[in-house]
């Protein structure tokens, strides 16, 4: 094979990988040469600095943030969630301020946009809803208009089973996850929302085992987490070939670095600490039989839906106007949810062949990734001295990476605990025990306490 | 979701002002564009503003939507083809500029696809553009997706696209995006039946060669290995559901006692290789033949666990169906599975037809020979704890198992020679590679997997077992980062190996001599460090199972063992009551040993569970019982797991939670049939026993119980001593650590003092040296001056002398 390589016969990819490994090795050697006291100093999580960096972002942003102007609820989420993981409280006034801002991003027809006046978008809706969940309290939670959000979700539903990110926008696995996670926390997982999602997501699983953004695409960490989490949320993870998924995810963890890469033969990146690391707690909770038995993926006929979206979205919104109203009427009448399933014959409940909701949220096995190595990568290679976390040594910090490095750290610390809500032993926390972050919900990525608060709030509220 | 803001550190004021002005501009522009969007203002100026905004930030998806509306609007007003094309070309230009700014923008790519579907743009131009992009960023998944889109529009052949992937692979064989694309294209080609079978096999052979070159060039590169996994999956047959085991054994006799309690009832059990649904009287025919005719025998099938509609294990209670029969009835039942369609799984319908028959004799309790095991008044002795009375079955005993062990023929399509040869060739290739690169982890992993596949297909039983285990052991050493994964893999392989054949099983069979002369058969899968079990289908017959001293975290799958009576899972790593959930589906289980596990070692906020979440569903019935336990902590999992069981003996000693009085009392409440808890009779009251030594001497119904109690106390004492010793050791260690810490501290202090002292000393030293140098320099200067003066004087003198001499000469 004619391989164009560098001076030493390596491909470009391999050269980059070697360079990064060298960088990490320098850090690790510096670490290894220190004394024990030195170690615990180096492995400390610089809480104050990170919190300072985050708080600064919530009150004032530099001009370079123009590029994120269509993602302002995301900024809120990344910062608020990072602060919540660090155990920091934001003061009440600031909280009110954020709630006020987010409600200005809300579209009158439902859903949140990237900023005031922008069209509603599924990803920013996820960000806005979970920002409000993270702020918590009746004021923040009551500002979410459930019925309108259901309307929006149904408008975005595509006949292929997936969701469009926004009106006339693209369909991909992100859409499925953000829609399902929002529907889950707002107690809106109704048959028309769920219908076809499992088929769509499983059509995106590739032969490697991971999940790509759309049918035919290469497996990718972010999409794999989104796909698996969405299917676990609707109890249909058995549609995936889980042993293959596990095999793919396990080997995304770098041998030298300890962090995760997003795709085969790419460099590690701090944010995949969550996207890839977050896959493992989900696999730890699923019943064993799903992980023993694999199916062989074959690529079926291209299921990419036709491009004439104007028609399809009109169709969907018609469906929405019928279903959402009738569904809510049913809830108001005090009928329980399974009665609605029976009424709605158009969308029968999915025949889930192995219902694992009855298995408890207990980790059924050891984490199959190296939790210590991941924590080491985050603490040694991703922390920026001035606060904030980054992709890899040599890159600049930002809020996105701060949020997902910290989320990944929390996942790694709690993976050795025995269940979602058990406190980990000191030995499973790398560095001083003070590094322990708040636990994050592995399916929604919000702090556990806030998740339960929201759960109670929305399961007891009647729709507005 | 992958937007990456960059923070810029400390800009200078001028630049900051410039940036601020830019931000203000951007904000104003955004306002204007959103305004135009609301007003449906599609003027030329508005479109220009929009383009400017998108060039600055392609992420503003609202602006892309505005452009879609504008384009639709413009196209409607134009009839001329050329004019329409120019509108679209203009759009492509705007998108191109936006992509220059950020070629990961979802909105921009989506808009481009939308424009292309009008069919008026030049595809060649698109291909050229894309080529440029994929050269600068070969892994851009938007780019690859766009290429798939173009191929679809252009109706390019798979062959054409395959050529492109091989070009990219040749440029950089680490480019996995190209490998992936290749696999998708080849699958499509195959599924569309575009090529005939022989060509396909040839194509696969070529792929094997390609990938072999890749991993021989660089064995550490992941691309080739993941591609090889796909190739293998195309070569080896996917698993199809089949019947893996059943009970009662073919040709056996079952005596059914209608009056006996539940646990001696008999069920028919079917075990499938994958979860299936649709097992019912329609799909499973059960008939009995009498002298006159053949009639249907109605069995009602339920799956285990019974809360789902698909499962690997299905059972039917014989007693329910025999109620109408008289005692003394003797029947031969013929069971046939798979003759009629209807049993299906995710992978498709059941493969193969299976038949078996057994004799059923209905008895009533007056008939001797049944029900003698009903009363369990003595504790069960565990084979791991009590050496007497247990002995290994001799090899010849293997035949004893013949009856109970269920062996199903595997219904495999006969492998074509090509497939078998390919598998063997790949095994050889991996061995060859490992000869060159001894520690190549991918090579070892691949070889292990190939050998497993070969094992499954080989007609003789499992020739590679030891080699596979060796490979996994070495992998754990070479690549500790992924050690947990290797550990699990090798554990479940080992377990399936043990259960795979009669020969392997008989090594693990022990018999125990009961006091009444009966023999019990124990399966002992102990001391193997298993972290995971696996398939239980072949063990349905097991009544006594010893899993002592492994590394189990969960007992999932054990619900298949519907005849289990005694289970020993002591010395494992079970860490919560909920990990025992699967055993709550075992109706006959009487004695459970879970000593020395880790239940309760992790503090858990149990209240949290009481709110239903996506992953947990605590039954409402439990909330009623909460009221009863206001005083202490509620272990509601105990009710969840144990309340449907009929355990008579439970050993929980050695778990952190076992010291809790509340836990014990709730256990006793949840298990009404419980007689023995940690070897002490429940009715005696454990707490009293511990607090009041006198309780030891209260009249005890049987003498052997006192003995037992004494030995129990002795055991406790010994353990107490051990714990004390451990505590002391720990304390010693703690104090030594503390003293070491102190020593370290002092050492460090001393060291810092030394450093400080050396520093001052060297500073002083330097100062004196500087002084000395200054002095030396000044003295030198002085010297020089003197020298100069001397020389000057000499010069003067010389002059004078010269003048004098000149004078004299004159």
How far apart lie the N and C ends of chain B? 109 Å
Residue-averaged pLDDT of chain B, rounded? 79
Tell me, what's the shape of chain B?
Answer: extended
CATH architecture of the largest domain in chain B: Alpha Horseshoe
Count of individual helical segments of chain A = 21
Uncertain parts of chain B: 1-9, 367-375, 395-412, 605-630, 686-703
Estimated share of beta-strand residues of chain A: under 5%
Protein chain pair with the most extensive contact, residues per chain: A-B, 132 and 126 residues
Shape of chain A: globular
Subunit structure (chain A): Heterodimer of FTA and FTB.
Pfam family, one (chain A): Prenyltrans
Family (chain A): Belongs to the protein prenyltransferase subunit beta family.
Protein name (chain A): Protein farnesyltransferase subunit beta
In a few lines, what is going on in this structure?
The complex is a heterodimer of chains A (464) and B (810). With 464 residues, chain A is mainly α. Chain A has helices at residues 12-32, 36-42, 47-59, 72-85, 92-105, 122-135, 137-142, 146-156, 173-185, 191-194, 197-203, 221-233, 242-250, 272-275, 279-285, 288-292, 309-332, 337-343, 371-382, 399-414, 448-460.
Any chance you could write out the topology, listing elements then pairs?
The complex is a heterodimer of chains A (464) and B (810).
Chain A: H1 12-32, H2 36-42, H3 47-59, H4 72-85, H5 92-105, H6 122-135, H7 137-142, H8 146-156, H9 173-185, H10 191-194, H11 197-203, H12 221-233, H13 242-250, H14 272-275, H15 279-285, H16 288-292, H17 309-332, H18 337-343, H19 371-382, H20 399-414, H21 448-460
Helix pairs in contact in A: 3-4, 4-6, 4-20, 6-9, 8-17, 9-12, 11-12, 19-20
Chain B: H1 13-39, H2 44-56, H3 61-77, H4 81-101, H5 106-116, H6 123-136, H7 141-154, H8 158-171, H9 176-191, H10 197-217, H11 222-235, E1 243-247, E2 253-257, E3 267-276, E4 284-289, E5 294-296, E6 301-304, E7 311-317, H12 318-322, E8 330-337, E9 344-345, E10 348-349, E11 354-363, E12 390-392, H13 398-402, H14 417-436, H15 441-457, H16 465-478, H17 483-498, H18 502-506, E13 509-513, E14 519-524, E15 544-546, E16 566-568, E17 591-593, H19 620-626, H20 636-642, E18 649-651, H21 661-670, E19 676-677, E20 680-681, H22 686-691, H23 703-809
Parallel strand pairs in B: 2-11, 14-15, 15-16, 16-17, 17-18, 18-19
Antiparallel strand pairs in B: 1-3, 3-7, 4-5, 4-8, 6-7, 8-11, 9-10, 12-13, 13-14, 19-20
Helix pairs in contact in B: 1-2, 2-3, 2-4, 3-4, 3-5, 4-5, 6-7, 8-9, 9-11, 10-11, 10-14, 14-15, 15-16, 16-17
